[in-house]
Design brief:
The protein is α/β, with parallel strands linked by helices. Helix content is 43%, strand content 10%. The longest helix has 52 residues.
């Protein structure tokens, strides 16, 4: 069996390192073929086993992060047990997630950790490509963004509700993404055990997962590339930026004049009139077709979830997710204010004084003086950053604080020759326009993946 379809592990091989690749929404193992191929070219079967998860192919990704995570965990455990029977001994584990697959992978490693696998196997590399760690709720104001937040969250079954953080996960009274980032959860404990954690985030044209969520960031300094200087890594220019110094604002005199920008915008608008006209004509048809298909897929997804819940071997996954019970009271209050504040429409938090911030309802969620609290993160970011703070939810600010606490190498990715950067970043298919993604994969294999 080809590695792009599952695993081609030869029991005669004695590699002690297993790398698991997890695809994204609407995906299948073939999407990760280039990642698997690049790993194999670098590391032989004597040094590395590769498993490309296949149990969530196609519309099965509608079924929710936890269902997908349990399926992947079952695949990993089955393979580990099979290898042990054949006399192979796995001592190291690496996990790679693309898009939604990164969230599924974070759930799966929590289950593996809770079952004691990490007492026998060393977690080495955890990497995500274009993964929406903070969900996909847009912080932009305007009717189109409100429509996206409302419409999108209700057309992808369980996964859609979770990506837009409007779900309540089991008996936690919290969205699953909030739980995945709770420092007292099995998922964060597992993530912290990995020796290396890295993420790759597109800085432009990723309409599926924007920069702020894939880079776990409260700001997006790449909204206007004409106003900033980009700093690239040697040998990977002009595609991968320096994590610690990716961008800096241009001095005012270097930026285009107002007249030039208005003239350029007017010309671009005129050039796009035919495209906008075509889109306007197609939107009603596409919306109806999308809604009907989403309804069908959601119905099928609910049926699959019911069958999954009736399956064998799931009792071992029904475990306490929080190691000390968590702060249920604060979570409930946070959820209440999240729903209250969802009607607000700001692109960015105001560059305001402490008084403006402490007057908000969010001040009751946590002691404002607590270092690293969501409120303190807002204050610090809005005061000190060169770029404005996005109007994220309180849960998203807390996710940033918690996820950053374990440490990541964050690589901003600048793909310029293709508009579909979400697919290009991992070379989802062999396509001429995706060649820049090969630079990204080469960096990951050569610089970040530790065997």
């Amino acid at each position: 069996m080809r590695e792009s379809e599952g695993t081609s592990i030869d029991p005669e091989r004695k590699a002690d390192h297993l790398c698991v690749l997890v695809h994204g929404l609407w995906g299948n193992p073939s999407h990760l073929a280039y990642l698997a191929k690049s790993l194999r070219e670098k590391h032989s079967e004597d040094n590395l086993n590769i498993l490309v998860a296949k149990s969530n192919s196609g519309s099965y990704t509608y079924d929710g992060i936890e269902t997908g995570g349990e399926r992947v965990t079952q695949e990993i455990e089955s393979l580990l047990q099979e290898l042990e029977k054949d006399g192979a001994s796995i001592a190291k584990l690496s996990v790679v997630g693309y898009s939604l697959g990164g969230l599924i992978a974070r759930y799966a490693i929590g289950l593996l950790h809770s079952k004691g696998w990490f007492e026998r196997i060393q977690p080495v590399n955890f990497t995500t490509f274009a993964t929406p760690h903070l969900g996909v709720r847009t912080p932009l104001r305007g009717y189109h963004s409100q429509l996206w937040n409302a419409f999108g969250s209700r057309t992808l079954s369980a996964s859609g509700r979770q990506l837009f953080t409007i779900d309540t996960f089991r008996d936690t009274n919290r969205p699953i993404l909030s739980l995945l980032a709770d420092p007292d959860s099995i998922f964060m404990r597992a993530l912290s055990l990995f020796k290396n954690r890295a993420l790759y985030a597109n800085i432009t044209n990723d309409r599926s997962a924007p920069y702020y969520t894939t880079a776990i960031s409260a700001t997006d300094p790449f909204v206007n590339l004409e106003a900033v200087n980009l700093h690239y890594l040697d040998s990977y220019s002009p595609n991968i930026l320096i994590p610690e110094h990716a961008v800096s604002p241009k001095p005012a005199q270097e930026q285009l004049s107002l007249y030039t920008r208005l003239t350029s915008s007017s010309q671009n608008l005129l050039m796009r009139v035919p495209l906008y006209t075509a889109i306007a004509a197609l939107i009603p048809i596409a919306t109806v077709a999308w809604t009907i298909n989403s309804g069908i897929q959601s119905f099928r997804s609910n049926k699959r979830i019911q069958l999954h819940e009736q399956g064998k071997g799931l009792d071992s996954y029904r475990i306490p997710f929080l190691t000390n019970g968590g702060n249920t009271a604060r979570s409930a209050v946070s959820g209440a204010f999240r729903r209250m504040n969802s009607t607000q429409g700001q692109d960015y938090l105001p560059e305001s004084s402490d008084e403006d911030l402490t007057d908000s309802n969010e001040a009751v969620l946590m002691d404002p003086s607590t270092p690293g609290s969501p409120l303190e993160l807002k204050r610090t970011t809005s005061r000190k950053a060169d770029f404005p703070t996005l109007a994220l939810s309180d849960e998203q600010f807390e996710m940033i604080r918690n996820l950053d606490s374990v440490g990541w190498k964050k690589y901003p990715v600048h793909i310029q020759n293709h508009g579909h950067t979400h697919a290009a970043i991992i070379v989802r298919m062999e396509k001429l326009g995706f060649d820049e993604g090969k630079v990204v994969v080469r960096h990951w294999v050569d610089e970040e993946f530790e065997i």
